[in-house]
Design brief:
It contains 2 helices and 5 strands, in the order E-E-H-H-E-E-E. By secondary structure, it is mainly beta.
């Protein structure tokens, strides 16, 4: 029997498959994804609710679309340019938003 227990949990979802950053001071990033799950200011006719779900919706995109983005970049067919080549991107999670109760 193996002495090491395998990890059956999936790794956390991150933006574009970037590394999950817990301490920003320990990393040198060019760009960071910070989610703000907030939908209080979206009261308008003909606008769907659900903006608070957007940070996780961005993280739900298949990682294979952005595979090795920091090494090879993204090729833009329209401009014939390679974008984000050699860029260090990190996902620093979401802002915790709590609503105060009026007393």
């Amino acid at each position: 029997m193996s002495e090491k227990i395998p990890n059956f949990y999936a790794s956390p979802r991150t933006f574009m498959g970037a590394e999950r950053i817990h301490n920003l001071a320990e990393h040198k990033l060019d760009y960071a994804m910070l989610g703000v799950p907030y939908a209080e200011g979206t009261f308008a006719p003909y606008i769907q609710a659900g903006q608070a779900d957007m940070p996780n919706a961005l993280r739900d995109n298949p990682v294979t679309i952005f595979f090795d983005i920091g090494d090879v970049g993204l090729y833009d067919v329209d401009t014939d340019l390679t974008l984000l080549e050699g860029i260090k991107i990190g996902d620093i999670g979401d802002v915790v938003i709590s609503q105060e109760k009026e007393s």
